[in-house]
Design brief:
It is built from 16 helices and no strands. By secondary structure, it is mainly alpha-helical. The chain has 2 domains: 205 residues, no CATH class; 138 residues.
C-alpha cells in the first residue's frame, strides 16, 4: 500500500527506480532485497504524501528506521546505490520540512558517496601510491542494463539535488566537475528506465558531459534530450548562473572575461530553450513528463533571474532581462492545473519566490515614480505566483511561509 502511494510521486522526490523490480524484491530472501534504508525512506515519503490522512502519524517511525538503517548501511558498506538514493530522499524530506541543516547534510553525504563510488563516471579505483587496502570504494559490475541504468539515474538524482538546493541554501555544491579525470562528470545523460530495459544505453557519447553542454557550439549528437536529461541540464544552468552572479564583486568593474562568461551562459540558454516542449503544448504530453517540463522551464527562467538580478540594480539591460524571465515564470503557471501542484518537484517553490521578488522590485520602482503608472498587471502577476505558492504549500507547508513573506512585502509597498 505504501509503495502504491509513493509510486506516482517518485519523480517529485527525484527518484527514478524500476517499481516492478522494487515490488518483486519484497518477496525475495532478505539479502537480495533492497536495503532497508531505502525502503524505509520510501515508506517515510509515502506517509508524508498521505497527509493529512491517518498514515502520516507513522512518519516519525519510518524516519527513525531510515536513519538507523543508514547508520547500519554505512557501517557495512553494502548496497551503496540504495544508500545514495535513500540519502537523497532523506535530504528532500528534511528540506521540504524546513529542516535545512539536516537536508544539507544528507545531500552532501549522498554527493560524496556517489562520487567516491564512481557514479559520476570519473576514473576511479585505479592504481595509486596509496595501499590498496584503503581503496575499498568499488561497485560490482551491474548485473544487467536496468541495474546499470538505475546507477546512471541515481547519479543524476544526486546531481539535481546538489546543484539546485546548493543555490537555494547558498552553499558550495558538493560535486566537483573539473578537467581532472577523477573529478570530471562523464556519466551519460539520463534516459527513461524503459530505454535501459530495452538495452538502449548511449555509452558512445559521454565525456565531460556538463562541460561539453556549456561549450558555445550546438551538439550534433542526438543524445541528451529525454525529459530527464533536460531536467539535469536545467540544474546545470541554474547552478552556473548562481556561480557567475555570486562571483561578481560590485566594487570591481566588470571584466571582459566576466562579460564573456555571461554571454556563453546566455548562449547556452538560448540554445537550450528551443529543445523544450513549448508551454502551450504541455497538455499534450504524458503527466510525468509534463511535471518535469514545468519544473525545467521554470528553473531556466529562474537561472536568468539569478544571473542578472544583482547586475540589474544598476544595469537597465540586466534589469529588463530579470523582468522578462519573471514574466516567463508567470506564463508557465497558466499551464499548471490545480492537480499538478501535488506532483511538482519542490525546487519550483524557491524559483517562484525569486520571480515574485523580481516583480516586487519592479512594482516598487513603478509606484515610486512620477507620474504614476498603472501597476495592476504586475500585482496580478504577483498574485498568480502567490496562488501557486499557496497551492504548493498544501503539499509542502514550508512554502506557505514564502507566500506570507511576499504578501507582507506587498502590504508594505
Amino acid at each position: 500500500m505504501l509503495l502504491d502511494i509513493f509510486a506516482p510521486h517518485r519523480r517529485q522526490c527525484g527518484l527514478e527506480i524500476h517499481m516492478g523490480r522494487l515490488r518483486d524484491s519484497l518477496s525475495l530472501p532478505l539479502p537480495k532485497q533492497r536495503h532497508p534504508v531505502l525502503m524505509n525512506a520510501i515508506f517515510l515519503w509515502a506517509c508524508y504524501m498521505s497527509r493529512p490522512g491517518p498514515l502520516c502519524q507513522h512518519e516519525t517511525h519510518y524516519l527513525t528506521r531510515a536513519l538507523e538503517g543508514l547508520n547500519d548501511a554505512l557501517k557495512h558498506a553494502v548496497k551503496v546505490v540504495d544508500i545514495v538514493q535513500a540519502s537523497c530522499l532523506l535530504s528532500m524530506y528534511f528540506l521540504c520540512n524546513g529542516r535545512n541543516l539536516e537536508g544539507s547534510y544528507h545531500a552532501s553525504a549522498a554527493a560524496s558517496l556517489a562520487v567516491q563510488y564512481g557514479l559520476h563516471g570519473g576514473i576511479t579505483n585505479k592504481a595509486t601510491a596509496w595501499a590498496s587496502e584503503f581503496n575499498t570504494f568499488k561497485l560490482e559490475p551491474p548485473k544487467d542494463a536496468v541495474e546499470e541504468g538505475e546507477r546512471i539515474l541515481t547519479f543524476w538524482q544526486v546531481y539535481n539535488l546538489d546543484r539546485c538546493w546548493s543555490v537555494v541554501l547558498q552553499k558550495p555544491a558538493s560535486i566537483v566537475d573539473s578537467r581532472n579525470a577523477f573529478n570530471s562528470i562523464n556519466a551519460p545523460w539520463p534516459q527513461p528506465l524503459e530505454e535501459y530495459e530495452a538495452g538502449r544505453i548511449h555509452h558512445d557519447h559521454h565525456f565531460q558531459t556538463i562541460r561539453m553542454f556549456f561549450r558555445d557550439q550546438p551538439s550534433t549528437v542526438p543524445v541528451g534530450f529525454s525529459t530527464l536529461a533536460l531536467r539535469a541540464k536545467a540544474s546545470a544552468i541554474f547552478d552556473r548562473a548562481n556561480q557567475l552572479s555570486t562571483s561578481w564583486d560590485p566594487r570591481v568593474p566588470l571584466s571582459c572575461a566576466f562579460r564573456d562568461d555571461i554571454q556563453i551562459l546566455e548562449n547556452t540558454i538560448a540554445r537550450f530553450i528551443p529543445t523544450l516542449m513549448p508551454p502551450r503544448q504541455l497538455d499534450t504530453t504524458a503527466v510525468d513528463d509534463r511535471h518535469l517540463l514545468i519544473v525545467t522551464h521554470t528553473l531556466v527562467h529562474a537561472a536568468m533571474i539569478h544571473l542578472h538580478y544583482r547586475l540589474g540594480q544598476d544595469d537597465p539591460v540586466s534589469y529588463d532581462k530579470c523582468r522578462q524571465s519573471a514574466r516567463a515564470c508567470v506564463d508557465i503557471l497558466k499551464h499548471v492545473s490545480d492537480a499538478d501542484f501535488s506532483f511538482l518537484d519542490p525546487i519550483i517553490g524557491p524559483c517562484w519566490t525569486c520571480a515574485a521578488e523580481t516583480l516586487i522590485r519592479e512594482l516598487n520602482s513603478i509606484e515610486a515614480s512620477w507620474p504614476l503608472i498603472n501597476s495592476s498587471d504586475i500585482r496580478n502577476e504577483i498574485g498568480s505566483i502567490l496562488y501557486a505558492l499557496t497551492s504548493l504549500s498544501a503539499r509542502f507547508p514550508v512554502f506557505g511561509f514564502s507566500a506570507a513573506k511576499i504578501q507582507k512585502r506587498l502590504a508594505d509597498l
